[in-house]
Amino acid sequence: MGKISDSSNNFLVPILAILVTAILVVVAFNAGGASSDRVVVTSDPAADIKTLSVAGSVTKMVTPDKVDIVLSVETLDDLANKSQSDNAVLADGVRSALLNIGVSSSEIKTISYSVNQEYVWNDTLKRSEPKGYRTVNQIQITLKDTSRAGEVVDAAVSAGANRVSKISFGLSREKELEVRKNALSEASGNAKAKADSIAQGLNLTLGKVYSVSENSYYYTPVSYRDYDMALGVVNEKSVTTPISAGDIEVTASVSVQFEIN
Fold first, then answer.
1. For the chain, what are the domain ranges?
2. Edge-to-edge strands of the sheet including 66-77?
3. 194-to-38, 101, 205, 206, 215 alpha-carbon distances in Å
4. What pLDDT score was predicted for residue 44?
5. What is the distance between the alpha carbons of residues 51 and 54, in angstroms, rounded to a whole number?
């Protein structure tokens, strides 16, 4: 039987050392019972640093502080210029109605305008025939007072708007910056709490932060879409249409790497 020489032993020792230091200890950590996060303990033989990597996340509910209302004035006539002129009268009436209830001109803007010829299928003649010209003036109203959404919709519809395309509750730029800062702070705290628990369970001492990165931040506005209004609808009981947003779900997550001893 052959004998391993001393030189062979000397060659194997550093290889074994590299293999040992490259071992990853993977621990499944369940956050609130909803999902499992991957936690990794690694060592860097070159820098003589061992690290613990964790992901922290937070989901919170936030009250919106703005609402975007997109509505349309639509008119149809056999003549294009008549369709346009009728639309202009109604659109001007809608704008005046909004100004009369305290909506500022800076909160109102036209986002699209179109005039298109429409056709209808004649089943007897088996062909499409002109139906008329449809003019659509789409207006967006942005309010900081979300409680006024119903009042604004009622005023616009009473004045001639016949389609509400979207009502979207969201966050202003200022509030979103504040919410994002707080959410990332809480996600970082969640990561630290996880790292503390894991280090304690493995009899390790948690050191300083080695690296940190933001994984994600997002929220989805609460939106209601494509609500058709009957022409000439008037709220005879003078009761404001109830439109409430509820809260918005905000999610943030970070990855943090801690040194361990």
1. 6-62+175-219+252-260, 66-170
2. 108-122, 127-143, 66-77, 163-170, 222-228
3. 11, 52, 13, 11, 16
4. 58
5. 10
- The C-alpha atoms of residue 234 and residue 87 are separated, in whole angstroms, by 19
Rounded CA separation 154/88 (Å): 19
Q: Is the pLDDT of residue 156 over 50?
A: yes
Report how far residue 165's alpha carbon sits from residue 139's, in angstroms, rounded to the nearest whole number: 10
Q: Phi, psi at residue 182, to the nearest 5°?
A: -65, -40
Tokens of 201: 């369970």
R_g (Cα) of the chain, nearest Å: 32
What superfamily does domain 66-170 belong to in CATH?
Protein of unknown function (DUF541), domain 2 (3.30.70.2970)
Q: Model confidence over 182-218: pLDDT tens digits?
A: 999 999 999 999 999 999 999 999 999 999 999 999 9
Q: How confident is the model at residue 229 (pLDDT cuts 50, 70, 90)?
A: very low
* Nearest alpha carbon to residue 157 among 77, 67, 78, 236: 236
Using DSSP, how many helices (H) and how many strands (E) does the chain show? 4, 10
Structure letter (DSSP) for residue 62: E
> Strand order in 49-62's β-sheet?
25-31, 35-44, 49-62, 248-260, 206-219
Question: What is the rounded CA–CA span in Å between residue 46 and residue 25?
Answer: 19
Tokens linked to 92: 């001007």
Does domain 6-62+175-219+252-260 match CATH 2.60.40?
Answer: no
